[in-house]
Specification:
Layout lengths: L2 H41 L24 H17 L3 E2 H8 L3 H13 L3 E4 L6 E4 L3 H6 L2
Antiparallel strand pairs: 1-3, 2-3
Helix pairs in contact: 2-4
């Protein structure tokens, strides 16, 4: 092997070693970042729900049946929110109100069946609006 071939091979080997070191460093940094994010998610405290004394009565329920008054209060709470901010999806509404979509399903169904609420779209793309004239009927009470 000539001197030039030897020099080329040694530079190629040095270059490959440098690339390997950079790749290992990048992998370590990426892993460290991912672990830091995971750790911060698990140690981060979840935000507390705002107290809604007007819509909930007593301690948190454990899957029991809700009273008619509680359902009516929750339906009214939902309706007032949708009247103020029409066109939002359930995901946005649940986040703003602090309830799960399961907790709001029955009150929303009653509002729709009662003609107070209008739904456009399907499934997750559904957007909620007060029915035409429903906001005026509510104010005139």
């Amino acid at each position: 092997m000539s001197d030039i071939d030897h020099r080329i091979n040694s530079r190629i080997e040095a270059f490959i070693d440098e690339i390997n070191q950079l790749a290992q460093r990048a992998a370590r940094d990426a892993l460290s970042t991912a672990l830091d994010r995971t750790e911060s998610r698990t140690t981060r405290k979840r935000p507390k729900r705002a107290a809604k004394a007007s819509t909930r009565s007593g301690p948190a329920r454990g899957g029991g049946k809700r009273s008619a008054q509680e359902l009516d209060n929750l339906a009214e709470f939902f309706f007032v929110y949708v009247t103020q901010k029409p066109g939002q999806r359930m995901e946005q509404i649940t986040e703003a109100l602090g309830y799960s979509s399961a907790e709001l399903a029955l009150p929303v169904k009653k509002l729709v069946e009662g003609g107070k609420l209008r739904v456009e779209g399907q499934k997750r793309a559904s957007r909620y609006y007060p029915a035409k004239g429903a906001a005026r009927r509510r104010r005139s009470r």
